[in-house]
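Form 7-S
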Amino acid sequence: MSLDDLLRAIEETVEYIKRKTENFKPGIGIILGTGLGGLVKEIEVEHQLMYSNIPNFPISTLEFHSGKLIFGTLNGKKIVAMQGRLHYYEGYSMQQITFPVRVMKGLGIENLIVSNAAGSLNPEFKKGDLMIIEDHINLQPDNPLRGLIESSLGPRFPDMSQPYQRSIIAKALEIAKTVDIKCHKGVYVAVSGPNLETKAEYKYLRLIGADAVGMSTVPEVIVANHAALPVFAISVLTDEGFPEDLQPFNLEEILEAAAKAEPKMTEILTRLIAEL
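Output:
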């Protein structure tokens, strides 16, 4: 998609959403990861739009992602939440995956919160724990900014020295301590998937400095940084990629682990949102 086409698509989608939501102005955008849609229960919902009805919006192909844009209030703050995110392995381009971030920015958000389910690589971080992402390594084969020149969307060469807002990380760690929830801080590595990693790959990912591995998040964070949006991201660790004792992958177990750990994540996020 050319820059002109992208700008046109963003404008058309933003206008459509404003019309459908009576000009709702969210201050915070939230992307909910695999098995982590429960935060929606805490939202006083004002409007809901199915992705399939929004012009230019890609549709999630995963049966455990519901594909809805939810507008409402959470702890007194106006938010827009993506229930159902998009992944590179579903066949989308990086620009399609990150299009919703551009649209949320166009609707007026000033902070972006991202959650995901990830596999632990750090032996100290156990299944069911939470990990706040303080930095990332991008091993995905494409970049959502490829082909974009300097424009109203952002600079050609965006800085990534602080992709995750340190001040928000500090607040979240403080909240976790207050409510007595175990919460690590670490480096997330993004791979393309959809296959899980081999023993040798888990070993390599740990060696290059990652604490957790997943198949999402980084494209959205790159685009948020490009658009000068502060980001906070948190992983629910749903499985363990420890090469010495690698168990065969089981999707049901992963979704179960996500569901179990989700209330802890929701607790931290609802309190954090009140402070943003």
